[in-house]
Write a structure and sequence with these properties.
A hairpin with a 2-residue loop joins strand 2 and strand 3 (256-259). By secondary structure, the chain is of the alpha+beta class. The protein is built from 28 helices and nine strands.
């Protein structure tokens, strides 16, 4: 069996296994690499080369950089702004997500954009009560389409720009690809809104949100400080409900208590607001200048950054000595050295001060303190520990460092355009990661938990397969078929043939490798036929970016697991999108770059 035939056979088997989903996609990737080594298509070093590829390091580092944005609440802030604009309208959300992703990817590259917005869209889906699978594929597709609009939108565009100089062509300008890129994006978004969106699966929505600690409704107390922007405003004007997503149940002002206050009630300094909300929204109060959680405990301060002080959720047990008593009579803070920030009582609300609430069996308390202090209560069966939520607390004071780390990464990645010196992308992302660790924006203990290693394994395995395509010259063999069988039908057929071939090769190979393999053959064919090589160069460049048919493109891999997609979801929706953008490219590329 020839190496070319063997490589194509293994590719067909791998795609079949991906489609059946009998095995996890990363396991299929590992089996593919083993088969390539055992059949001697690749040596051991070549087969494992993908695991040392700088792209794997880059994507792993991006997970950590995005983790810094999540830990400091920036991602959630973006999600809330998008939700405020679009509400729960799935159509508007899809259009907004694709447009935002495309605009970002035109500058940040599609993989970076997808990684950055992935947690944003997951959080946005939860707020809008829409399954993540309805929004994550449009995110990836929008980023891929947007990356084709500028020179720096993808590394493939930069690679092609550098490679065509050897063929006597001028490098691509910054916005040379923008004209057709914007048209193709518009066509692609119209397809996703009206045809692709209804075809998206409805998976990934939580079935029991009340069982999730981060969704559980809590009652807490907020004190209005003298410097608060809310002083003098009515409850309606304060937008506490819409901006902080907290429901004001009552106001305690000195000895006066108002139950279910009206929207016209004015807020005064030192008012105690009894609010109900989700744990994440309560912890986010630190962002609001002039509001503080009562008792007097400052979230995200230096104590919380230490290894000993943590946040816990604990439930009061049936036979606990705490049942029937209040926090005040228990002298809870003094005797147990634990601070209660909020109480959850399923199905019941109250407007008393937390210290005056009589505890019942099943009450869930959000408390701050040391594990050493809470363990005796757990051991004595007074309480049961539900969750350690310290890691989920928002580190607002570290926000500037999360932005600085991402800014450092972006600045270094654009170094070649600014100063003419090219810093490897992996080095750029690692510099940002080191800044996060040095400032404790991301703690070392949680760094590796932010990385999805299954996705990295899949990407590494497919890169190794790309090496097999090049080593066996399978790619050149396929390019030769286009030249031999389509040349006699005219330039449009030849151009279409190279476009389709490039799209096909981007499934098992990296986009950059596919473009650089097809490019010399396409240019040589254009010259032989007396055609404009620039037309073929642009078509191949676009084709290398349009990888929608399988979830093997890095941007698609990133959303594959969180969206709970199946392989055939991409085949079904992505194939139609590929055909549509192919038609658009075939119409407009020859117009802007005539034969």
């Amino acid at each position: 069996m020839s190496p070319i035939f063997l490589t194509l056979f293994l590719l067909a088997v791998a795609i079949a296994l991906f489609a059946t989903e009998k095995l996890p996609v990363d396991v299929v990737g590992i089996l593919l690499v083993i088969a390539l080594i055992m059949t001697r298509v690749l040596t051991v070093q070549e087969g494992l080369a993908g695991f040392g590829n700088d792209v794997v390091i880059t994507i792993g580092g991006l997970f950590i950089l995005v983790g810094g944005l999540v830990k400091t609440g920036i991602v959630d802030l973006i999600g809330r702004r998008l939700h405020r604009v679009a509400g729960g309208n799935e159509f508007i959300l899809t259009a907004l997500i694709m447009t935002t992703a495309a605009a970002s990817a035109s500058v940040l590259k599609n993989t970076t954009t997808t990684a950055m917005f992935l947690p944003v869209i997951i959080g946005l889906a939860a707020k809008a009560k829409i399954a993540p699978s309805k929004l994550l594929m449009p995110l990836a597709f929008g980023a891929i389409l947007g990356g084709s609009c500028t020179l720096i939108g993808t590394s493939t565009n930069l690679a092609v720009s550098g490679a065509i100089v050897r063929y006597g062509q001028e490098p691509l300008s910054m916005f040379e690809l923008t004209s057709v890129g914007v048209i193709v994006f518009a066509v692609g978004m119209i397809y996703m809104l009206f045809i692709g969106r209804p075809m998206l699966p409805n998976r990934g929505a939580s079935e029991s949100l009340t069982d999730d600690y981060s969704i559980r409704e809590y009652i807490s107390e907020l004190v209005v400080l003298p410097n608060s922007r809310l002083v003098g405003k009515t409850l309606g004007e304060s937008n506490i409900n819409t901006e902080l997503e907290l429901n004001v149940l009552g106001i305690i002002r000195g000895d006066q208590r108002q139950i279910a206050p009206r929207a016209s009630e004015r807020i005064e300094e030192n008012d105690l607001l009894i609010v109900e909300g989700k744990i994440d929204d309560i912890l986010r109060v630190k962002e609001e200048v002039g509001l503080e959680i009562k008792p007097d405990f400052k979230l995200n301060d230096q104590d919380l950054e230490s290894d000993s002080i943590e946040l816990f959720e604990v439930m009061v047990m049936r036979d606990s000595e705490l049942v029937g008593q209040t926090l005040k009579t228990l002298r809870f803070r003094q005797d147990y050295e634990l601070t209660v920030l909020a109480i959850n009582r399923h199905g019941e609300t109250f407007i008393n001060k937390l210290s005056d609430v009589r505890l019942k069996f099943g009450d869930v308390l959000l408390v701050q303190g040391t594990r050493q202090e809470i363990e005796p209560l757990v051991v004595d069966r007074q309480m049961i520990l539900l969750e350690d939520v310290s890691a989920s607390s928002v580190r607002v004071e570290k926000r500037k460092w999360a932005i600085a780390a991402f800014g450092l990464f972006l600045t270094l990645s654009l170094s070649k355009l600014v100063v003419g010196f090219d810093i490897p992308l992996a080095v750029c992302v690692l510099a940002g990661v080191l800044l996060l660790l040095a400032t404790k924006t991301v703690r070392y203990s949680e760094m590796y938990s932010l990385i999805d290693f299954r996705l990295l394994v899949l990407i590494a395995c497919m890169m190794s397969f790309g090496v097999a395509m090049e080593k066996t010259e399978t790619d050149i063999f396929l390019a030769g078929l286009i030249q031999n069988y389509f040349g006699e039908y005219g330039p449009m057929y030849v151009l279409a043939g190279f476009f389709v071939l490039t799209v096909v090769l981007t499934q098992p190979m990296s986009n950059q490798a596919a473009a650089l393999v097809v490019l010399p053959v396409a240019v040589k064919t254009a010259v032989a036929l007396g055609l404009n090589p620039r037309t073929f160069i642009i078509a191949v460049t676009y084709a290398a970016s349009f990888s929608f048919i399988t979830p093997l493109e890095p941007a698609c891999v990133l959303v594959y697991t969180p969206g709970k997609y199946r392989f055939m979801d991409f085949v079904k929706i992505g194939t139609i999108l590929t055909i549509i953008v192919f038609i658009a490219a075939m119409i407009f590329v020859p117009i802007f770059w005539p034969f």
